[in-house]
Design a protein that fits this description.
9-stranded parallel β-sheet, 14 helices, 9 strands, binds zinc ion, Glyco_hydro/deAcase_b/a-brl, Divergent polysaccharide deacetylase
Length: 348
């Protein structure tokens, strides 16, 4: 009589691999998301003071620069910064309420759409490689809805985000961008309204505290000697929980709002406890995607990707491999000021 030998079923190798990776990395992923606070620093008014501005080029590349289009050294700075991989913004002059000397080609609310279009096109030519725009001065222009709507109409033809410098409380920038494809960011902290090292240092600390509280913050400074000295000392030695990023990184949906991110994580954890077998639904898809793409073994990466694409509860396919779809939906959220939160568990 032949004795039947017990043979354990061989589990699917891709599934086993996925399970191992998830169990190993999941605590790390949650820890990173819960701790990271992102800080963007932009230096405005670049193009006039080469000596000070060259110091920015020696800082980490995440420190971004906003260049005045009609400045004498703007183009040269744009080229040098671009070679470093540094993010560049067009620092577009806009009319202030107070009387003060104005840059050439300063936008006024009464200008026609054609005039504004010509000035922006000209600025794009003069500041090559720019990915965003922010306002120089602009208390009169940015508080004028119809004026800013004309700006947004023009910007929607280019792939530029708009960083509102917030030079007036009654800014209409976000409202003007609604219904367009222009993503909008807002400045939180000015580093050097008072040009002393002590004050600038204090403002950096405020920006860090705000980043921790909100998950992200944007600080704007200028090429003053005091600002440069303080940044040289502080930027390279930021606290470990602060991630220095370029402004466009804050257009990314994950962790742009720490509260939202934490809320989603808490909901996902609750769902995970309710149904442990649906573990694939509770992870941060973006983190897993990044993990999959950085796995050294190409076969492992493919197996993981295939599994994710087949598994119920997956995000749409373009979320796994195509950034453009995600960017579009984020742009819509940004312009509408929508922050999606949900208490319900993900369904298949
Ligand atoms: Zn400025």
């Amino acid at each position: 009589m032949i004795k039947k030998q017990y043979r354990p079923q061989k589990p699917d190798s891709a599934f086993t691999l996925l399970l191992s990776i998830l169990l190993f990395f999941m605590p790390l992923l949650f820890t990173l998301n819960a701790q990271a606070a992102r800080l963007a620093i932009v230096i405005d008014d670049v193009g006039y003071r080469v000596h000070e501005e060259n110091k920015i080029l020696q800082m980490p590349v995440a420190v971004s620069i906003a260049i005045l289009p009609d400045s004498p050294y703007g183009r040269k700075m744009a080229e040098k910064a671009h070679q470093q991989g540094r993010e560049i913004l067009i620092h577009l002059p806009m009319a202030p309420l107070s009387k003060q000397p104005l840059e050439k080609n300063t936008l006024h609310p009464a200008m026609t759409q054609e005039e504004i279009s010509r000035i922006i096109q000209d600025a794009i030519q003069k500041v090559p490689h720019a990915t965003g725009m922010n306002n120089h001065m602009g208390s009169a222009m940015t508080s004028n809805l119809s004026g800013m709507e004309k700006v947004m109409q023009v910007l929607s033809q280019y792939h530029l985000y708009f960083l509102d410098s917030v030079t007036i409380g009654n800014t209409q920038v976000t409202k003007a961008a609604m219904g367009t494809t222009v993503p909008v960011l807002r400045r939180n902290i000015f580093l050097d309204n008072v040009q002393t090292e002590a004050e600038t240092r204090q403002q950096i600390n405020r920006a860090i505290a705000l980043a921790r509280k909100q998950g992200a913050a944007i600080a704007i400074g200028h090429p003053h000697p005091t600002t440069m000295r303080v940044l040289q000392q502080t930027v390279a030695a930021l606290p470990r929980d602060i991630e220095l990023v370029s402004p466009s990184m804050l257009l990314h949906p994950i962790r742009a709002d720490k509260k939202e991110s934490l809320h989603i994580q808490q909901t996902k954890r609750k769902c995970a406890q309710a149904n442990k077998s649906k573990f694939a639904s509770i992870i941060q898809w973006d983190d897993l995607k990044a993990l999959a793409s950085t796995l050294v073994h190409e076969g492992s990466s493919n197996a993981l990707r295939q599994y994710l694409e087949k598994h119920p509860g997956n995000p749409p396919k373009q979320d796994l491999g195509q950034a453009s779809g995600k960017k579009k939906s984020q742009q819509k959220s940004e312009k509408a000021g929508i922050h999606k939160t949900s208490d319900t568990c993900p369904t298949n």
